[in-house]
Structure formats: structure tokens, C-alpha cells
Specification:
The complex is a heterodimer of chains A (about 300) and B (about 300). Chain A is mostly helical and about 300 residues long. Chain A has twelve helices and two strands; from the N terminus they run ααββαααααααααα. Chain A folds into two domains: about 45 residues; about 250 residues, MetI-like (MetI-like fold, Orthogonal Bundle), CATH 1.10.3720. Chain B is α/β, with parallel strands linked by helices. The chains are: A mainly alpha (about 300), B alpha/beta (about 300).
Chain lengths: ~300, ~300
């Protein structure tokens, strides 16, 4: 009798707890929904015919090559390209370094060094972006300026695409590395033993078995990293220079990213110049989505080529 | 797949390097680098108005703040930029330029020889739209102190604002007009909003005036010029951030209609200083040259 009671009670508790979980899920999901609806509503308003500060042409906005709020020209086409160029260049620098670092930390480094490196990488990941920004404005720009003057190029005191790329590469390195580390350490020992038993060298095993088995996690790291590169505003705006036209491909030219555009003068503006930042935010969200799909696509490709081999 | 990616990357780098190469010859070494504030900045507005600039050159780069301007111009020998006169330029590695031969200083701003300046404007809520009748009387008394008393003017100028003290009277002669000053006002709070540039002068005058006016309290919520109007007469006037007096480091714009306010005006002047790197050979510049440089028609400092 007593036993039956406890089971009943337990069932009720289970029910209540699972409902609490459901409530929590709904709350966090609704934040996401509220944010998206708010940004959609705010961001699309400048293109609606009843917009109070003068309607912006959607195509001019999306494909424009000039961003001049002082002249009423809001074109983000070149900013989209700039953002993609800076984030993907940063990723292409940080990705190999991160993956090889992770491989070293997990598979090659002696125990003590490995523990030490993990702490260092976690510390790097937790440094606030404004600190990276101050570092970039003080050190990276000087480095860029020195390189540029050796090549005979005049820069804006080192404020340039190259500085942005170096800064972003440094910023996303710990993210990709720490996720790669956990992914590589979870590769099954049996797989590696099998590879070694078949006569593969350690290097071959590390590259062809360990890395490929860990690709799911490594690409998740890349996606998070590139997300950080796209979304970084504070630090980037300190070294980007906010050029008014573009796109910028020259490494020593100044550039302008979607986030640096959104943050510049946000506190002092109103009307269209304020609302348009939500439209830019919307564009940024879409670009991040597309890039994530792209990286997922590449991830699947990497596996397939291997299977054919 | 990999080959295509690598090819694309190489092509990107090549175009990048070639577009640099064309600007990288010896003659362009001395091209002036133009720095400006973001387009919402009150300092930028003051500067562009002063040099009568229609459209700023595409080649200008935008910095995020006064401090950012100082950092960037300090690290760039070919730079030209501008900051507010109240900015302390000592030991920053920057040089302030004379405009048309006039040294930027408080005296030259007041005698109207120095031309690059901007007003600090204020606007109040509409008459009768205060939390209490007492609060409205207190705001009126404060503005009287700020605008018409010698004491107020001295406090403003000590805090970096530029005020003409002629025509001001001792506050003791104004005091009689404000019966609210004779009671204990510690239950009243004046809320201010708007430009961050006005913060130092505003806080100094409020702190100085409070003991003379029954120890009222005040809350300064300075976030930017555009919030000044918004939070006393505009869209946020009944919101959580509502304020009694709003400030802007510029004139109120056409979108900001202050006619319904109880009181509005200008309580002091701030000036803009043109700065270059301390290693620059230039010491003096004209408004026309500045206009030509910022419009992009002149590419050197001289």
C-alpha cells in the first residue's frame, strides 16, 4: 500500500518537474522569438511605404556601395562583402592554427604542458572583447603600420583590414581550439589502435583518423568562431576605420563591417539612422545563417571525399 | 573543392595587393589622412558647420569617440582630426592648430574671433507637465540660476563651459522671484537627460545649486544629444527614462520642436579644436583649407 503511494507521488513529482522544464524551454525559446520579431519589425520598417523619416529603397540598401548617413545614402552591399572578407580571412588563419594546436595539446604534448595549454586557452577565450580591442588599437595597428611602411604603403596609422583580420583571428582562436580539444579527446582509442595496428604511422593516424573522426566538433568550433568573428563589434570598430565606400580588398586599406556600422554613434542618433541599424542587424543574422549552412556543407564534403578514398 | 577554395583565396589576395600597389608610390607619402567622428556626433556637426562643409570626402575614416580620435591621431603622423575644446590635450602627443591665426582658447571663443564652436542647449518639459507644481518651480529657479546669475556662470566656466559673464547678476537679486527656494526640497528630484558632453558643467551647477535650494536631489541620465529632446517632449517623455530637463550639445533640430517647452535656450558654448600629430610641421590652418581637406579637393596639409 505504502509502496504504491510513493510510486504515485513520484509520478506526480515527475510530471511537475517535466512541466517546469517545459516552461523553462518555452521561456528561453520565446526570448529568441521576441528578439527576432522585434528586429524584423524594426529592421523592415525603413522600407515600408508609410515610414515616417523617408522610405529607403530596399535594393539600393542591399546592393549599395556607399554608406553616407550624412547624405542620406544607406548602402550596405559593400559592407556585407567586407564583413565576409574579414571574417573568412580570419577563419582561414585561425582554423589551421587552432586545429593543429588542439591536436598537439591532446595527442603530442606531455601531460604537464597539455594541462597548462588548456588553462591558457580557456583564459584567452574569457578575455572580454574590449580588452582585445585596446590591445589591437595599441599593438596590432603598430605592427600593421610597420609592415605597410616597409612595403611603402601609407596607412591610417595601421587602421586597416589586416589589423581587423589579425584581431579576429586572435579572438576566434581560443573558441575553435577549446572545442577542437574536447572533440579530439573524445575520439575512441580503439580507432587509433586499429589504425596503428594496420601499420599507419602516428602522424598518419593523427591526421587521417583522429582529425576526421573529430570533424563534427571541429566544425562546430569553426561555426562558433566565425559567428564570433561576424558578431564582434567593439574591438573591430576600434581598428576598422569605418570607410564610407567599398568594398575593401586591400589589406592595408580601411574597412567597415556590419557590426562596426551598427555600433558607431548608436547612442547619439535617432530617426532613420537609428532604425536602419536594425535592418543591418537583420542582414547580419541572415549572413551568419548562410555561412553556418555553408560550413555545414563543407563539413559533409570533407567526410565524403574521405569515404571515396 | 579544396582547389577552388585555394584559387579563390589567391585571387582575392592578388587583387588586394594590386590595389595597394597603385597607392604605394613615393609621391603619396605625405597625403593627409582625414579623421572624423561618426555622423551622429555633436562635435562633428559643430565642426562641419564651422568649416561650411557640404559633403565630407569619401576617404575620411570615422572614429568612435573623442578618446578614439586622440588615440588615432596620435599614432598617425599624417592625420588631421578634431576634438572638443574642453578636452585636455596636454601630454597627449597632439598639437592644436590655430584657426585663421587665432589660438583656440576660452577668450578667443568669447570675443568671437575663434570660429569653431557649438552651443550647449537645454529644453524643459511643457508647463504643467511636471510630477508636481513644486518641481516645476524648482526647475524654473535652477534655470534662472544657470542662465542669469554670476554664480552659475562661474561654476559653468570652472567646469569647462564657455560663458559670457557680462549682463549676469548676483543670485541674491534673483532669489526673491523663487519662493520655492525658502522651503526644504529634499523630497524633490530633478531628472536630466541628453548629451553626455554637457555632463561636467551640468553636474557642477546642480551640485552648487542644491544647497541654495532646499537640498533637492538630482539624477543625471546623460546618454546622447538625441535623447535630450526625446525624454522631455518627444517619444519617451512619459516612459521610464523621462526627464525634467533635456540637453543637446547642438541646436535642437527641425524634428525636435521645442515651442511647447516651459523654457529652452543655450546656457554655454563649447568649441572644437583641430588637432594634428605633434610631429606635424603645420601650426596654423584656415577654414578654407580645412574645407578643402575635408571635402577631398586638397590632399596635403599645406
Amino acid at each position: 500500500m505504502n509502496n504504491l503511494k510513493t510510486t504515485k507521488l513520484n509520478k506526480i513529482i515527475d510530471k511537475v518537474v517535466s512541466n517546469i522544464y517545459l516552461l523553462m524551454t518555452l521561456i528561453s525559446a520565446s526570448f529568441m522569438l521576441i528578439i527576432i520579431i522585434f528586429i524584423l519589425f524594426k529592421g523592415l520598417s525603413p522600407f515600408m511605404s508609410n515610414y515616417q523619416y523617408g522610405v529607403v529603397n530596399f535594393l539600393d540598401f542591399l546592393f549599395g556601395t556607399q554608406y553616407r548617413p550624412d547624405m542620406g545614402i544607406y548602402g550596405v552591399g559593400f559592407i556585407i562583402i567586407n564583413t565576409l572578407v574579414s571574417a573568412l580571412l580570419a577563419l582561414s588563419i585561425a582554423f589551421p592554427i587552432s586545429v593543429l594546436t588542439a591536436l598537439f595539446v591532446v595527442k603530442i604534448a606531455p601531460q604537464r604542458l597539455s594541462e597548462f595549454m588548456k588553462v591558457v586557452i580557456d583564459l584567452l577565450a574569457s578575455i572580454p572583447s574590449i580588452v582585445y580591442g585596446v590591445f589591437a588599437a595599441g599593438i596590432i595597428t603598430k605592427f600593421t603600420m610597420t609592415i605597410a611602411s616597409m612595403l611603402g604603403v601609407q596607412t591610417y596609422g595601421g587602421t586597416s583590414l589586416l589589423s581587423v583580420v589579425i584581431l579576429l583571428a586572435i579572438m576566434i582562436f581560443p573558441t575553435i581550439t577549446s572545442i577542437s580539444i574536447s572533440s579530439i579527446s573524445s575520439v575512441s582509442e580503439d580507432l587509433q589502435h586499429a589504425s596503428l595496428a594496420l601499420g599507419a604511422t602516428k602522424v598518419q593516424t593523427n591526421f587521417k583518423v583522429v582529425l576526421l573522426s573529430a570533424k563534427q566538433g571541429i566544425f562546430a568550433g569553426a561555426i562558433l568562431g566565425v559567428g564570433r568573428a561576424f558578431g564582434e563589434a567593439t574591438a573591430v570598430s576600434m581598428v576598422a576605420g569605418n570607410k564610407m565606400f567599398g568594398p575593401t580588398f586591400g589589406l592595408f586599406n580601411t574597412t567597415r563591417t556590419l557590426t562596426s556600422t551598427m555600433i558607431a554613434g548608436l547612442k547619439e542618433t535617432s530617426g532613420l539612422d537609428y532604425d536602419i541599424r536594425f535592418s543591418i542587424g537583420l542582414v547580419l543574422l541572415i549572413i551568419i545563417l548562410i555561412t553556418n549552412f555553408g560550413l555545414n556543407f563543407i563539413k559533409n564534403k570533407v567526410g565524403k571525399t574521405h569515404e571515396k578514398n | 573543392m579544396k582547389k577552388i577554395l585555394i584559387l579563390g583565396l589567391v585571387a582575392l589576395l592578388l587583387t588586394g595587393c594590386s590595389s595597394n600597389g597603385s597607392t604605394g608610390n613615393e609621391e603619396t607619402k605625405q597625403i593627409v589622412n582625414i579623421y572624423t567622428r561618426d555622423s551622429a556626433s555633436g562635435t562633428r556637426e559643430a565642426f562641419e558647420k564651422a568649416i561650411d562643409l557640404d559633403v565630407i570626402s569619401n576617404t575620411a575614416i570615422e572614429v568612435a569617440s573623442n578618446g578614439d580620435m586622440i588615440t588615432k591621431v596620435k599614432s598617425d603622423e599624417n592625420a588631421i582630426g578634431y576634438v572638443s575644446l574642453s578636452t585636455d590635450l596636454l601630454n597627449t602627443g597632439l598639437k592644436a592648430l590655430n584657426i585663421e591665426g587665432v589660438v583656440p582658447s576660452v577668450d578667443t571663443v568669447l570675443n568671437d574671433t575663434y570660429s569653431m564652436k557649438r552651443p550647449f542647449s537645454y529644453v524643459t518639459r511643457a508647463a504643467g507637465d511636471y510630477k508636481s507644481e513644486e518641481l516645476q518651480q524648482l526647475v524654473v529657479a535652477y534655470l534662472d540660476y544657470l542662465n542669469n546669475s554670476i554664480e552659475g556662470a562661474l561654476v559653468v566656466s570652472a567646469a569647462g563651459g564657455i560663458v559670457d559673464t557680462s549682463g549676469k547678476v548676483a543670485f541674491s537679486t534673483l532669489k526673491g522671484n523663487h519662493s520655492i527656494l525658502n522651503q526644504d526640497n529634499s523630497h524633490l528630484t530633478i531628472n536630466t537627460a541628453g548629451s553626455t558632453s554637457v555632463a561636467s558643467t551640468l553636474q557642477a551647477t546642480l551640485e552648487a545649486f542644491s544647497p541654495m535650494a532646499g537640498n533637492f536631489k538630482f539624477t543625471m541620465n546623460q546618454t546622447g544629444s538625441s535623447d535630450g529632446y526625446k525624454r522631455v517632449l518627444g517619444s519617451e517623455k512619459d516612459g521610464v527614462n523621462q526627464a525634467d530637463i533635456g540637453f543637446a550639445s547642438r541646436d535642437f533640430s527641425d524634428q525636435e520642436d521645442v515651442t511647447s517647452a516651459l523654457n529652452s535656450g543655450i546656457y554655454c558654448i563649447d568649441a572644437v579644436v583641430v588637432i594634428v600629430n605633434e610631429n606635424s610641421e603645420v601650426n596654423d590652418i584656415t577654414l578654407d583649407t580645412l574645407n578643402a581637406i575635408y571635402a577631398g579637393t586638397q590632399t596635403t596639409l599645406k
